[in-house]
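Example 4.3 (complexes with small molecules)
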Amino acid sequence: MPSREPALSLSKGIGAQRLKGYTRMNSTKTAVTPRPARAGVVTARRIGPILKILRRAAPNWNAPVVTFIGVQTGDPFRTLISCVLSLRTRDETTAAAARRLFDRAATPAAIAAIAPRDLARLIYPVGFYRTKAKVIAGICRDLIEKHGGRVPDEIEVLLELKGVGRKTANLVVTEAYGKPGICVDTHVHRISNRWGLVKTTTPEKTEMALREVLPRRYWIEYNRLLVAFGQTICNPASPRCSICPISARCPRIGVTRFR
Ligand code: SF4
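Answer. The structure with iron/sulfur cluster bound is encoded below.
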């Protein structure tokens, strides 16, 4: 049975991901000479001014796709399913798959009624689409049988859903419910270590370290700001330090190549 929920307007992929005031930046006009890497590590006391600078620059960056879907729909279920779709998948691909899926079905009951092969076909080509189709179907069944069709708003309860890890659980509570959590993906892990705010080897360890050091008032926005920043400027292989608005405050730990 087709869903009557409104369709996501993501028809133009990442270019259409605009939160209020979010647009693609014009990098050529903001280029400055790279500064030497001599700033000290970023501490809990110094993180506030850095996030303030990023917050001011954020309107020039595309919002992360799951944030966009969460804000656009205000629906915890769509936020949860979009997050599962987004794992190991580019934002453009996630956005298109989410649109196809939610156009067809946007509630646990509606998705649980879709045959597994059709579900996999709907979300193709997200990474591991066959596995994700099974995970999504399982989540929908669990939500119906154990939670009355409602998405839980606590991290520990979300983690009991098969296929939901700490990243997804944190993202759902922060983006869908506005509750404290720190969602650590590859961007948050990499950038927090480049700043020296934490010194960790895995995203899970980074989350625990950030819970100790990052003032609680920054938890919810931290993922949103750092993912957009990581996709736009502080890229994985060769960060764009020459146009970075916080280059003077960054010790660039572990950065051997930059633009
Ligand atoms: S782009 Fe990343 S590594 Fe380079 S100065 Fe900015 S925050 Fe530091």
